[in-house]
Design brief:
Radius of gyration: 19 Å
Helix content: over 70%
Shape: elongated
Order of helices and strands: EEHHHHHHHH
Number of strands: 2
Distance between the termini: 49 Å
Strand content: under 5%
Structural class: mainly alpha
Strand order of the largest sheet: 1-2
């Protein structure tokens, strides 16, 4: 079975790579967890919608940019593919070496829903992890000879958006459950 030139094996492999990205803690996780713990489940889900909008922005920029680049400079596609593979290797090496981020927790004041959406969209839009993911991984799965690069990129982006929404939604739900548990047990709040 193929979808816009992408075979099911490639889509499953891409979904697995996306799942690994989505399961990697980063600024978006910190944002979603902190908003959920500070303001509850509703704030977490509104933040999740904003994050999804930011990922969609990355998806569209990458899909249209990659297509335009391929049409203008066919050799550039191979260069992006090689640079993307090098970046993924660098990320793996950095992870093995232990170069991680550390985030200090801070109390958060209540924020209206529209502000949550805007903040989450901005958090996802400026997240370099997503931008570099698209630029490094899309070319590994897109085959210019198999059909429209734009449609293949959009299909991969929809897979990314779906997997990320599932993982981030589970994260928000878990944070909401834990937040409710902590609120009922003052000892846990002190321990935290």
């Amino acid at each position: 079975m193929t979808l816009f030139g992408l075979d099911s094996h490639s889509l499953l492999l891409f979904a697995a790579a996306v799942a690994l990205l989505a399961l990697t803690p980063g600024p978006v996780w910190v944002f979603l967890i902190s908003r959920t713990l500070a303001q509850g489940r509703r704030a977490g889900y509104f933040s999740l919608i904003g994050v999804a909008a930011g990922v969609l922005l990355h998806l569209l920029l990458a899909a249209f940019g990659l297509t335009a680049l391929l049409l203008a400079l066919p050799w550039a596609f191979d260069a992006i593919k090689l640079a993307g593979a090098a970046y993924l290797l660098w990320l793996a090496w950095s992870t093995v070496r232990g170069d991680g981020f550390s985030f200090a927790p801070q109390p958060l004041p209540p924020v209206p829903d529209r502000v949550l959406l805007r903040q989450a969209l901005l958090a996802a839009a400026v997240n370099p992890k997503v931008a570099m993911f698209y630029l490094s991984l899309f070319p590994q799965f897109v085959d210019p000879g198999a059909g429209s690069v734009l449609l293949q990129s959009l299909a991969l982006g929809v897979v990314h958006l779906g997997v990320s929404a599932l993982v981030d939604g589970a994260l928000v739900t878990l944070a909401a459950v834990l937040g409710a548990q902590f609120a009922r047990r003052p000892g846990w709040l002190r321990l935290q």
